Amino acid sequence: MSTPTGAGRLDLPGTPVFDGDTSRRGFRMNKLFMSLRDAAARERFLADEAAYCREFGLTAEQEKAVLARDWQAMIDLGGSIFYVYKLAMMDGRSMQYLGGVFTGMGEDDFLAAMRAGGRRDG
């Protein structure tokens, strides 16, 4: 069975697609997020978040998104949800919190929707 390709595959309103172009665009930011697996790196990040972002060569827009914890902007700028979540965990945020942010539902409503079998759009 093959995976659909072409323009239709990317035409998913409201759904960011993490493909090769997105990966290249967010490479440095995702590399920063992955570095946060290490306790010493987390300490350095928390000591001076802006300087840590500059070490990884983030664009000004990416740095602004990271420092502001603008989760949607991080995704839009090439962040992978799996890597962005590493930063969210540092802030004590859950995946359900991010789900609420990305759906506009809020964490409690998102969690309730998942427990009830998932979102129902349209």
Can you tell me about this structure?
The chain is mostly helical. The chain folds into two domains: 72 residues, Protocatechuate 4,5-dioxygenase, Chain A, CATH 1.10.700; 30 residues. The chain contains nine helices and no strands. Helix 2 runs parallel beside helix 7, helix 3 crosses helix 4 and helix 8 packs across helix 9. It is globular, with a radius of gyration of 16 Å. The protein starts with 6 loop residues before the first helix and ends in a 7-residue tail after the last helix.
Q: Give the CATH class of the largest domain.
A: Mainly Alpha
What series of H and E elements makes up the topology?
A: HHHHHHHHH
Number of helices: 9
Q: How many domains would you count in the coordinates?
A: 2
Radius of gyration: 16 Å
- Report how far apart the termini are: 29 Å
Strand content: under 5%
Uncertain residue ranges: none
The CATH topology annotation of the largest domain reads as Protocatechuate 4,5-dioxygenase, Chain A
Instruction: Tell me the major beta sheet.
Output: none
CATH architecture of the largest domain: Orthogonal Bundle
Category from helices, strands and their pairing: mainly alpha
β-strand number: 0
Shape: globular
CATH superfamily of the largest domain: Dioxygenase LigAB, LigA subunit
